[in-house]
Amino acid sequence: MRFCPWDLAWNGVVPLFLFLIAPIDFASGFEAGASNQYPPCLLCGYMTAALPPAGWYFEDTMLYEHLTAYNNRSERTTTRYSIWANITKVIWIADFPLLGANWGASLSQPIAYGDVKIAESGVKRWGMTDTAIVPAYLSWNLGSDLFVAAGFGVYIPDGSFNKQRALNVGDEFWTVEPVAAVTYLPDGWNLSLSATVDFNTRNAARQTTSGNVLYVDYTIEREILGWEIGISGDWLQQLTHDQGPWSRADEQQIVIGPVIGHMIGNVDVQLIYVHDLISRNTGGGDNLTLRFRGPF
Q1: CB 22: neighbour CB atoms within 10 A?
Q2: What predicted TM-score, i.e. pTM, was given to this entire model?
Q3: Using CA atoms in the order 230, 67, 197, 134, what is the torsion angle rounded to 10 degrees?
Q4: What is the mean pLDDT of residues 136-152?
Q5: Which among 97, 183, 216, 238 has the fewest CB atoms less than 10 Å away?
Q6: Higher pLDDT, residue 248 or 213
Q7: DSSP E strands: which ranges in the chain?
């Protein structure tokens, strides 16, 4: 992979909709409830624990998901949905250390479109989703191409939401999302692993609190003739049960797929595709991400 200064493009914790499908009752045990904030493989393709030099950076991510809802027995239901989203992120990297680490902050704003079909009926919705702020993400260079990092993000419930709607692209609750990561960069390789947990506040509109959810993302890629080529994946495991009348059964998912990247001028372009191996009480299927990032 390219070791240009901006190629160690910091990810932080990006928001995504994974919209709230609240009043819709999924058949065969896939019950309605507040959804998680984190789409599959959100931190895939990054040097997760490494930061670029001080300065301002941009990132734009386009995401498409075509999914089927799976029930508590990991069986397909009749519910299908498609999601389109664009996430714009601004990143600032400080020119002074904090706790002995390089550090930075970011602000992300997605726009999303959701199309849900249950048997012969369906509903569509688009709008602004919840804004995400990462007030601090710290990266320590341990030497010998090894980095560790820690930080947290906050999702602000300012997205499009109305409790009378069958489908929303915003969530009516706050989420705090700590993350820890490690990256090893020997001889053109990127070996990265991150662990993220969502802690959700109560959704007053639904009188429901979503359970805490763990996400583990990994990337294994190598620079070959100027191209970044590898695989990435994600493991999702709900840690605590939902609480309230709109509760649903605990989620679990494993996804995996290829990642490819290339520098075009001073912009790093990445294409990531993942597909689920296991899905339970969540949507499984095709997930395609196109990402652009570079310095201002």
Answers
A1: 22
A2: 0.85
A3: 80
A4: 97
A5: 97
A6: 213
A7: 55-70, 76-93, 102-118, 121-128, 131-143, 146-156, 175-184, 189-200, 202-203, 208-209, 213-224, 227-238, 252-264, 267-280, 283-295
